Amino acid sequence: MTTDWHCIEKVPLEVNAFAREDASEIHPLRQMTVTVLESKGTRREKSSGGTGLGMLDPLSQAFDGSDPLSQFARQASLEVDPLSQIAAEYELSSSGGKKMDSPLEEAIEPWSSRRSAILSKYTTAERLSIVTSFVSGSESIKAQTTMTEKVKHRLEQLDDFADGSYHMQDVTQQEYVSRIEQLNQELVQAWNNDHRVTALKIAIQCSKLLADTSVMQFYPSQFVLITDILDIFGKLVYDRLKVKAGYIRPGSTNPTALPDNFTPDMVPEMAKETCLNWFYKIASIRELLPRFYVEAAILKCYSFLTSTEFNLALLRLTRIIRGIGDPLVSIYARCYLCRVGMTVTSDRAYISENLTDLFTVYHTMFSPRLKNELTRQRLEMPTYLSLYIPALDWIMQGMAVHTPDAVLDQILDKCLAQKNNGLLLNSVMTSFSCNFISRRAVKLLLAISDNSLSEGFPQAQLLRALGSCLVMATTLPEERQQVWADAMRLIGEIKLPGQFILALESWAELTSTAYNLSHVAAILEDLLMHMGQNRVFEQHYGELQAVVDKIVFNSKDLEGLLTLDNFMPVLDLFQKESVKLDVCRNIMMVYRDKIEAKTNDPVTTNALMYICRVLNDSVNALTVDDERRQIGGLISHMIKQVDFGRDFESQLAFYVDARAAFLNLDVVYATLIHCVNNLAMETRRMIRGQHSKKTAAFVRACAAYCFITIPSIVAVATRMDLYLVSASVALQNLCLGQADSCLEAAIELLPDLPAVVEVDGKPKSNEAYLISYVGSLLSTLIVVPDSPDRGVLFLLRLLLDKLNLYQFDEIHCQCEATLITIYLGILDMLSTAAQDAYPYHIPGIVSNDELYGSDPKFIAEIDGLSSKVADKILINLKLLADKGQLKVQSNLALELFTRIVRSTDITRDKQFTLAVNLWNLVTKNKALLDAKALLAVLAIVEQTRTAQGNTVLGKRLEELVMRMRNKL
Q1: How far is residue 879's CA from residue 876's CA, in Å, rounded to a whole number?
Q2: Could you tell me if residue 367 is left (phi over 0), alpha (psi between -120 and 50 degrees) or otherwise beta?
Q3: Cα separation values, 265 from 258, 303, 306, Å
Q4: Which of 361, 203, 189 is nearest to 281 (CA)?
Q5: Which of 195, 528, 708, 883 is the S-S candidate for 139 at Cβ 3.0 to 4.6 Å?
Q6: For 562, how many CA atoms within 13 A lie in the half-sphere containing its CB?
Q7: Rounded to an integer, what distance in angstroms lies between the CA atom of residue 548 and that of residue 570?
């Protein structure tokens, strides 16, 4: 604890600073005279304490035999249990009772949102002091013989405790917080155990802790922790009184709980006496600070007595604060009073008086004695003044809400009249409306300029606060250019880099939002000048990043911003890799979200390439997949945005440069390949498929780019897809050699395709992808003419060979069923290849139907391959039977049967026998199949037989139909 002057020092004031007022009219212990009618009809006058409510003093009555505390104890057994009480309150509230909140409390930022910010900001490593042994003992009652002795004993408990000495111990901040939490629990526990005096003792001693300013920098957090306990105490008292105030509704004889919007006339006399008793107890506390705080904590309880007492009580408590000498303790007491007052009344006379008193004693914050104390605690004046900000802001905000501008102007003038008014100006700019501040920006800038010679509050923080107001304002100052120029002049004169960057941040945001690029360029120039010297930027990476982020995010012309002379040099100030990565990522995210237009400006393109190169270079083996995807997506978007129009050669050159710059990301390479393929197709569209020598060379260069780039991609499936797409584009542009190379490379990759991939942390078979991919590949191979150097159907033969090398995962897939499905697709492709004319062609490409013209040797090659594929299918069908997969086997056998009937010459005995055997195999397990599917296949065969008529094939089909019917 500190010396007495921290709590009750008489503040040196000017003459008549506070006018003398008669407090007897509003003090709860003022003397009043009542007339008592005695039994014989005579009258006598009796003096007692009162509140002007026309009630007798319960403590005086106690000496005549009426002990309120004993009455409370007797009534405890009659109280409603908590669950019944809650139910009763719910019933009343549902029937129309509504909670009446103060409009003033609802109009400002809630205290709960500020609480955590205060606790996190105001911390200390110093040792703290706290009471460690003041809740020993209990609320025991000795065997007194009279009511008077009982009352005296209860008062002695409170009085002895308040006056007694208590042990002090140096503790750390964490131990202090833990002890406060323990006191909180002890208070609630004492209350729940009906030890009301013990709970009051805890509240009193916690209030005393608020006189301790031995560690000033922790005081705001100390205030929050202690007032949390006082708030709980006040709520416990209020809820207790509300429970005891049973309300008897008109026409009823049973008491019910008071509704939330009760009036004093609904409160029974006993509950009012109980309420008065609490106020009398608190008024008996000798020390000023605990008496003030505890009464303020239960201020809401005045609602049980009268609806007009709040304003009088708040004014009385405001004047009590004048007795607190320490300005830090004083302003937080005012803060607590205003916070409590806002919950009970919308009248702001007490806030205004608190503010007036604050202006009167403002100079004491700079007194020599206080400066000596700051020197002892090794605190700088700016740090000390920052301790006032939470309390002062709350008071100012409470005064500013719904207040006419004329009144706010008066408050502002009073602030400007103070010496060393930086703290007051900061609170005004934080609490008053942004539009109000904006309209007076010139006046405030002049005051801030004068404040540079004053003591204490940093000018940079004032400039920052003014800039923040202008950012939030919906209207800019009329002299906006003058305001900006004056502010930049003041900011530029700041010598300390940390203070400079602090002031610049909000003005950088304002400049990028409301001014043009020339103003932003001036901001960047000042930034380079102040932060680029002597490598001071290394100590301010966080502030630098905040400035750059706000400029980028709020810029109306991001491309123009990137082309400013000083933008890239400012970006080079970020020499710490992690910070530079964050800055570059934020720039590219803004570019992705805001820029829709294409660009081909070389300066912009170079800047974007530089920023994306920083992102790419940050990727390494330890980079997580999500970050890879994010960075890859940002770079890919940038690549798509660069468009040189019809200058295709420049476009391809850009893609070549991008390939060299971005080496670490598959998604970027895939984007580049798609872009180059699009470039080749756009070339084909422009010349309508009629390539000249120049355009033919260009599209071959595009195909070569893709073929060279694809092997750099790690993912096998991605490479296979890109090879297939690139081959299709090459075919469209008549680049047969490049198409063959891409297709061959894709087929060669088949054995390397992983059988299982991980999806959302779970293994998943790749069989579905393999089936789909081979199907797409076969549809492309239909139109690809055979190379004269490779033989007939070389690529298809290569595919069959690579399929034999593919390693399936027996655990996660059915390899036999997958292979049969693929082989069935190959049979379809061979059947199509044997036709006289293919169903589709690529203009300019001579496919095998034109190349061979149904040559018997070509058909023989197809038959040979078909036989081999059919044999492989039969082998795998047998393997399915061996594994007990009879249903799968029957379905696949039915598929093969359908293809043999429709696509082969079943007049041959070999094909006919195979068809019959397959049908027998299908019908053997027909119970496992859908009967409709079997009948559908039978109908197809019958239609084919009808179409053939009396031909040899028709007769053979008729025989097959009879066999099929017999099996069904």
Answers
A1: 5
A2: beta
A3: 11, 10, 8
A4: 203
A5: 195
A6: 21
A7: 8
Which residues contact residue 534 at a Cβ distance below 8 angstroms, ignoring those fewer than 6 apart? none
Helix orientation angle between 480-492 and 497-514, rounded to the nearest 10 degrees: 160
| Cα 464–Cα 466–Cα 470 angle in degrees, nearest 5 | 115
**DSSP run (H or E) holding 711:** none
Strand 43-50 versus strand 756-759 pairing type: unpaired
Assess contact for 753 and 770: CB atoms under 8 A. Answer: yes
Cα separation, 264 vs 305, whole angstroms: 6
**pTM of structure:** 0.75
The two beta strands, 128-131 and 168-171, are antiparallel
Supply φ then ψ for residue 28, to 5 degrees: -65, -20
On whether the CB atoms of residues 825 and 778 are closer than 8 A, the answer is yes
Q: Which SS3 state, helix, strand or coil, does residue 98 take?
A: coil
Is residue 278 within 8 A of residue 298, CB to CB? The reply is: yes
The pLDDT assigned to 190 comes to 92
Judged by DSSP in three states, 237 sits in: helix
Residues 6+ positions from 863 with CB-CB distance below 8 Å: none
For 766-784, b/e burial (b = at least 16 CB within 10 A) is bbeebbebbeebbebbbbb
- What span, in angstroms and rounded, lies between the C-alpha atoms of 153 and 430? 51
Q: What is the mean pLDDT of each run of 10 residues along the chain (968 residues)?
A: 36 38 42 36 39 38 41 40 38 37 65 88 80 43 46 50 48 86 90 91 92 91 94 92 75 69 83 90 92 94 85 93 94 95 89 94 91 91 93 93 92 92 94 94 91 75 94 88 93 92 94 93 93 87 94 92 93 93 95 91 94 94 91 95 93 95 92 96 91 93 96 94 96 94 95 86 86 95 90 93 88 82 94 92 91 88 92 91 87 89 83 86 80 82 78 78 75
CA–CA gap between residue 791 and residue 793 (Å, rounded): 6
Integer CA distances (angstroms), 358 to 17, 208, 422, in order: 11, 22, 14
Amino acid identity of residue 356, one-letter, is T
Burial (CB < 10 A; 0-12, 13-18, 19+), residue 831, is middle
Location of structure tokens 């139910």: 87
Side chain identity at residue 166, one-letter code: Y
How far is it, in rounded angstroms, from Cα 542 to Cα 553? 16
pLDDT value of position 156: 53
* Amino acid letter, residue 611: I
Report the candidate in 804, 856, 805 with the shortest Cα–Cα distance to residue 834: 856
**Which pair of structure tokens corresponds to residue 155?**
């008062």
Question: Residue 924 CB: number of other CB atoms within 10 A?
Answer: 15
Residues 466, 504 contacting (CB under 8 angstroms): no
CA neighbor of 80 nearest in space, from 304, 257, 233, 241: 257
In Å, what is the CA distance from 198 to each residue of 160, 296, 890, 930? 12, 19, 86, 83
Q: Which amino acid is at 968?
A: L
Amino acid making up residue 318: T
Location of structure tokens 């905040």: 546
List the alpha helices (DSSP H) in 710-752: 716-732, 736-748
Alpha-carbon span 82 to 80, nearest angstrom: 6
Confirm if 679 and 704 have CB atoms less than 8 A apart. Answer: no
Calpha distance 170→175 (Å, rounded): 9
> Which pairs from 624-632 meet CB under 8 Å and 24+ separation?
628/665, 628/667, 629/667, 630/585, 631/585, 631/665, 632/665, 632/666, 632/667, 632/668
* Residue 615 · residue 639 · CB < 8 Å: no
**CA 278 – CA 197 distance, rounded (Å):** 10
Q: What is the pLDDT of residue 113?
A: 84
